[in-house]
Amino acid sequence: MNENRKCTLQVQSETGKLEAVLVHYPGAEVENMTPRHAQRALYSDILNLSIARKEYDQLLAVLKKTSDVYEVADLLEKVLEHEHLKEDLIRKICITEQATEYIDWLMYLPASSLTKVLIEGLPLQINTLTDFLREEYYALQPLYNYYFTRDPSAVIGNNALICKMANSVRVRESLIMDAIFKSDLFFTGNVVNSYDLSQNNPLIKMEGGDILVVRDDILLIGNGMRTSTQGIDLLTREFCKTGSGKKHVIVQQLPESPESFIHLDMVFTLLDTDKAMVYKPLIMNDSPYQTVHMQIDNGKVTKISSVNSILTILRKLGVDLTPIVCGGKSDDWDQEREQWHSGANFLALAPGKVISYARNIHTLEELDKHGFEVVKAANVINSQWDIASASNCVITLEGSELPRGGGGPRCMTMPLRRTIE
Ligand SMILES: NC(=[NH2+])NCCC[C@H](N)C(=O)O
């Protein structure tokens, strides 16, 4: 990251060359749980941290080859060096998480230790009968899911959207993002805080994994466990109120279970200006899950209609995408298994240059058939293979532990800036 220059937020597509990205290196927080707490932590299993970190190192090294990489913990620590920002954030967190008795103690901590506590969790100091009998280990839960930086905030155009998270265990992630973006220390852009806009309406919720910026005038949004229709209505109002002319919000309903369908980016991601990765049973087959097209003209919704599929409506709007099938075309068991392991969750580093997990072999085979060269991350990292001079390629990360947290490369990255195509 460039220490002196502020980065101007700008994301108008899913595939424009990635110039700056926000990530979080997984730490003790991913292990600070017991089997009894895994579900509440939104995990399906407990990760092996040392292996997860080795896998994450690959992601980080590949990202660093191509873009500026900002780490949440570094930015948070810098924010916390400012006394008034520190006090503001501590208060917000402790009030939200009903831990106001810890405010003074937290204020006393230096920025570096406070950063650690806010991410890895604060154990309860048990000095009341209530706490003793509560069967709770933490006053502030660890942020188990923070390595999925995609979800608590999202850059749309020049705006940093602070998402209103669906589960309380992830709310602090978004409060920290708010403090980082509002601090004015690192980024130039607008901050849109959905908590402030939702007037305590508990039905409003949205997460970045559901939000795809297809073009500057097209948002594609998943509606399911993490993003409600009320959340989408709020987003539609906010992002379509500026600028004249037509805009489009396309909504894809998602199943409530299994948990691998939590976000739209687990079933549909863009790989290139003319290619998308799809989970076929949901995106291309007949299903009870609707696709809805909302048309906006000069800031007002003028028409809402059901449409055939994401692919057909996008084609009508001039975005003609060839679908590439997650798990391969021939076997629906392969499709289901690879979708579960985040096989549809791709991050584009540039048009046609994407990252995914090495384990999803049928998906990779399908990409190979469509002209993507399959390259091991290790070869990119040791410079045996050069991303810049390559044409279409998929860079594969070792991934046995990371996907068990419930996501892939798109979930683990929050683009701050992409080249406008
Ligand atoms: N963009 C994504 N698909 N993120 C995946 C997040 C997984 C995480 N365990 C959660 O449940 O919140």
UniProtKB/TrEMBL annotation:
<dbReference type="GO" id="GO:0016990">
    <property type="term" value="F:arginine deiminase activity"/>
</dbReference>
<comment type="similarity">
    <text>Belongs to the arginine deiminase family.</text>
</comment>
<keyword id="KW-0378">Hydrolase</keyword>
<protein>
    <recommendedName>
        <fullName>arginine deiminase</fullName>
        <ecNumber>3.5.3.6</ecNumber>
    </recommendedName>
</protein>
<dbReference type="GO" id="GO:0019546">
    <property type="term" value="P:L-arginine deiminase pathway"/>
</dbReference>
<feature type="active site" description="Amidino-cysteine intermediate">
    <location>
        <position position="411"/>
    </location>
</feature>
<comment type="pathway">
    <text>Amino-acid degradation; L-arginine degradation via ADI pathway; carbamoyl phosphate from L-arginine: step 1/2.</text>
</comment>
<dbReference type="Pfam" id="PF02274">
    <property type="entry name" value="ADI"/>
</dbReference>
<dbReference type="InterPro" id="IPR003876">
    <property type="entry name" value="Arg_deiminase"/>
</dbReference>
